[in-house]
Amino acid sequence: MTRTFGGIELGGTKTVVVLGQPGAIREREEFPTTTPDETLSRAVKTLLHWREHGLLDAAGIASFGPVRVAPEAADFGTMLDTPKPGWAGAPVLSFVAEALSLPLAIDTDVNAAALAEYGAGAAQGCPVVVYLTIGTGVGGGVLLNGAPLHGMLHPEIGHVRLRRMAGDAFPGICRFHGDCVEGLLSGPALVARFGRHPGEVEAGDRVWDAVAHDLAEVLAMLVLTLSPQRIVVGGGVTNRQPHLLPATRSRLPHILGGYLRDCTHAALERLVVPPALGDDAGPMGSLILAEQALAAKGAN
Amino acid sequence: MTRTFGGIELGGTKTVVVLGQPGAIREREEFPTTTPDETLSRAVKTLLHWREHGLLDAAGIASFGPVRVAPEAADFGTMLDTPKPGWAGAPVLSFVAEALSLPLAIDTDVNAAALAEYGAGAAQGCPVVVYLTIGTGVGGGVLLNGAPLHGMLHPEIGHVRLRRMAGDAFPGICRFHGDCVEGLLSGPALVARFGRHPGEVEAGDRVWDAVAHDLAEVLAMLVLTLSPQRIVVGGGVTNRQPHLLPATRSRLPHILGGYLRDCTHAALERLVVPPALGDDAGPMGSLILAEQALAAKGAN
What we know:
Two copies of one chain form a homodimer.
Chain A: E1 5-10, E2 14-21, E3 24-32, H1 36-52, E4 58-63, H2 92-99, E5 104-108, H3 109-120, E6 128-134, E7 138-144, E8 147-148, H4 181-185, H5 187-194, H6 208-226, E9 230-234, H7 236-240, H8 244-249, H9 252-256, H10 265-271, E10 272-273, H11 281-296
Parallel strand pairs in A: 1-4, 4-5, 6-9, 9-10
Antiparallel strand pairs in A: 1-2, 2-3, 6-7, 7-8
Helix pairs in contact in A: 1-2, 3-11
Catalytic activity (chains A, B): D-fructose + ATP = D-fructose 6-phosphate + ADP + H(+)
EC number (chains A, B): 2.7.1.4
Cofactor (chains A, B): Mg(2+)
């Protein structure tokens, strides 16, 4: 018997609610992420509708962070200190759990996207996977033999500090850290850096150099810390600027300094890749979380 | 029946060969690491002696790196591109395997030390562990639910680049990267930075500020990338400068910028700790590798 799953990709800007199986989204609803109450109510209403039609065996939530992902924690499934107004302390998981009586799982949006790319996308067969998204914010998910890395909280790769390019004085825009990865590379950071929309800046313009530099520093840090077989770089910034990943890859051999072998152009094209699932990685990941929640309940 | 294991901790400066069980070193021999042939021959001779006395069920090698740790690789157990003269390409594992016909395992010295601290030291019960050593070189091992992280190669945390302290112009001494972590924080780097031996520089001297800054940047990067429950900081530099870890911890809340909760003094004292096993972590880790090699052979 084929099971059917529901998923919520709770993003900082928009929320996507889906129905289907991992790899096959059958229905989809999208709306802006507003207040926790309004956003989660709307998502729950859609899931309840599907459940009433007998279509829902479990649900998964792929949430922006930081969110508590340790099931043993008292505040499991709760949003932590986020700059997004109104969301700090929002009980994301329990809000959904109280409305639906179904197996339920929650993880970060980037861990979920990594799961989807590992299952059916650009990271198949890779024991160590990083999924980096560069959009309204910057986040990173890490997968080890197919299991999301949680640790004390979960990775917050978007807030690592970088060695800056000589002569680049852009102070960054993160309200917590100024020039952390997110403060330097997110969409709003690029607008602040360029003084205009990135789409208006030509690919050959030298102002992109500092952006490629900073992204290359992030990727080198990830290579040296996690030794991944694959780094999937998704999100609006790199999706809309196809020149950025090649420019970044070409900087890696110099940063890695010959220390790692096999730092050829071909090897770097295998290591650093765009997502195969595009914007569907997050929603598909939420369906994988739902499938895992059902399996964990022993209901398979 | 109690099994007895042999271990080789192959360090950049000295080699330690031990006999015993994980947690109970019964015999120990130490000598300088010279050429691969001379060093490995001497280690093998000691292990053979113990084996002739019926004392050896398996052996483990905890090696400086970079070394190939993937068993499926054609060059499994071979030293890769190391600056240590004569060692690049040295067939560490096969040299020992040809002399001993015993279950054998190899991992990095820092992964082995992490295993030991996880098993019986300062990292017990921690799902995500980082073991950082700051001595002649700088290396980092990562353990996930008790299993060493390998990935494409293995972590090379010592070669990550850092955001530098404003006004600190020390260029670093790494022959590959200049001011990578090892180029800034290793023992030889401190000698170059201070122009004298670190032991001659008083704890209150402001020249330590840049060192604490750089170490805090490494630790913050590790917290944000791996979300570890424990970071064990070993090696001669921090062992001999007990003021350094407290000075480093006190910088972390500012770098993490309030983004992570629970960044209190007490929480940071639990997160960032000295090794409980001191210099025995590496040799004990080599005995754990031996025990795992025997278990993998189904001989338990």
